[in-house]
Amino acid sequence: MTEQIWKIDGDRLVWEVKKGQVHTDDIEMSGFYADGIISYGTKEDGSLHLEQSFYFPTLRTIPNHTHATYHFDVAREQTPCLLKGGVPVREFPIQVELDGTLCITCETDAELLTVRRFYPAQNALYFVEQVSLIAMEDGEFTLSLPGAHLHEYGRGTKGVYLAEIRHDAPEVIRLASGDTLTYYVYYSARIANRPCPRVDGGKELLARLLRVEELCGTMVLHTASPVLDSMFRFSKLRAGESIFETLTGKYHSPGGRSYYAATWCNDQAEYAGPHFAMTGDRVAMEASLNAYRSYTAFMSESFHKLPCSIIAEGLDIWEGAGDRGDAAMYLYGASLFCLYAGDKAIAEELYPAIKWCAEYCRRQTLPEGVIRSDSDELEGRFPTDRKANLSTSCLCYGGLVFASKLAESLGDVDTAEEYKKRAAALAEAIDGYFGAELHGFETYRYSKGYDTLRAWICLPLCMEMGNRKEGTLGAMLSPYLWTEEGMLTCEISDENRSSTIWDRSTLYGMKAAFLAGAGDRIMAPLLGYCRKRLLCDRVPYAVEAYPEGGKRHLSGESALFARVVTEGLFGIRPEGLDAFSFVPVYFEELGEISLEKLPICGGCYGIRVGKDAWVVCDGGKEIARGETNGERVEIHKG
Question: Which of 120, 390, 415, 558 is deepest in the core (most CB within 10 A)?
Answer without folding.
Answer: 558
